[in-house]
Amino acid sequence: MLHLMIVDDEPLAVNYLVETLVEMPDLQMNITKAYSGKDALEKLGSNSVDILLTDIRMPGMNGMELADRILFRWPRCRVIFLTGYNDFDYVQSALRKGGVDYVLKTEGDDIIVRAIEKAIDEIETEVNEDHILQKARQQVHLALPSLRRDYLIEFLLGEVESTSARRRRFKELDIELDPSQPVIAVLGRIDEWGTFSAPSERVLLFYSIHNIAEEYLSPDVRFVSFQYDRTRIVWLVQPMAGQPWETTLTALDNCAVRIQTACKSLLKVPFSIALASESTSWETVSNRIEALKLQLTFRMGAGEEMLITEHREELNDTPRSSHSLIEIGRLRSRMHKLDLLESYMDNGMKEQFNQLFNELFAVNETLFSDEEGKWLGLELFSHISAFFLTYINKRELFNIIRPMLQIEKIYSPDQHSGLHEMLQFFNDLGVTLAELNGRKQVERTHNMIGRVHTYIHQFLHEELSLTKLAEIVYLSPTYFSRLYKQITGQGLLEYINETRIQRAKVLLKTTDRKIHEIAVEVGLESAPYFTRLFRKKTGVTPQEYRESSKGMEAL
């Protein structure tokens, strides 16, 4: 229940107003009376006040000073000043504070009650907004694991950010790791599903493994974990404050054994774990995860319940530089963004397609200069080729584009003289598809406008509502109205009225029908409205037009 305080140095005025408010059942409030500013503060003590109704001119502490004291303690309090005609300067100053209203003493009780009701409505609106925001915060909190996973997956796909940007995102997503310090990568794999065969049960299994790992890891290390794909889980680990990296690596070895044992004994599923042998920077952690995936896949053994510590010598004898690995990671990340190009081609936006394509594949050609680089180039070609093949097949465009280009270049890397020529070909292909779709859109749009115009001319004598016309072209009325004006440069109603006037001109000059009959013929039941519209469009009345030589010349 809201708390209202009424303050005035005239006790009779206070008591009368309280009695009036108490008799109003719709205003359910706790009411406190005070007869001076000092009295008001003493009666409030530590209790808050929602609405303050106070006289401005009072001896000692005036209403403005009292309001300042109360607003300092309870900023959300609504203040209503009781004023006289000569208090306007005070009121102007008060209104600048916000959340303040005023009532002239001479206006009567009804105006005071309305001011209080207005304050109540504002408070309830604010409370509802606070509730919505609080609910949104709760929903974000519940969604944090999913948001955190999406961010880290993007990160592992090569979305490397600056340390400051990473720090901000870590804070937003409640990732309790230091974005400026390296991490140790750990990869877990569910080798068999056991009794967890149904999709809902698999979600439960992942949740159980996360809980088991958290129980064993939390006392010894800082970490973040997330589901990497259908069968694998990633942990990114850092030492506790002041703990050496060697101690953390030892703790991870011990915890991995416990996690694996618990999964087997409690969940009845075999679980393999691969541990990095050393820490790695955030910029290269995605490459370390890839290395762990390969070791779990190709390491000698039974293939289940493996516990592997990564051995650097088992990797390439001549590993790429960390800079090259970062560049490759970014390239692979951009390969996963090819679908962003689809909407540009669909909507005929060839300039935007060209710009984004060049941004995605502005690659360092030295990455493709050695033997490994050739395979990387083939990987890049395969991704782009598959994207365009899928796009063209889904829209059945092969026969249309075949005469426009060397079609075999889409699926044959040997047809390209080099990396630059290959990227330029696919760029040109995308621009060609965008132009094709753009022309189709224009044709479809003009055909659509033509159908609507034909209908208007054919049924001009009937009701031509926006809803009816939008149904003809299977669009929503609002969108169709906006699209029509965008294409033709005029509103749909304006076109209909112009068509009505042109038809009316013909009928006025070629027939002896009466004005009201012609009005009905062109779809306007009201003859006076028809006359006003005709005069507005032509400058003369229908009768004047009929009788004028100007009308004959216009024909």
How would you describe this structure to a colleague?
The protein has 555 residues and is α/β, with parallel strands linked by helices. 58% of the residues lie in helices and 10% in strands. The protein has 22 helices and ten strands. A five-stranded parallel sheet has the order 2-1-3-4-5, with helices on both faces. Strands 7-8-6-9-10 form a five-stranded mixed sheet, with helices on both faces. Strand 3 (51-55), helix 3 (63-73) and strand 4 form a beta-alpha-beta unit. Helix 13 (371-394) runs parallel beside helix 15. The longest helix is centred in the N-terminal third of the chain and has 48 residues, at 109-156. The radius of gyration is 38 Å and the shape is flat. The two termini are 76 Å apart. The relative contact order is 0.04. The model is unreliable at 313-318 (pLDDT under 50).
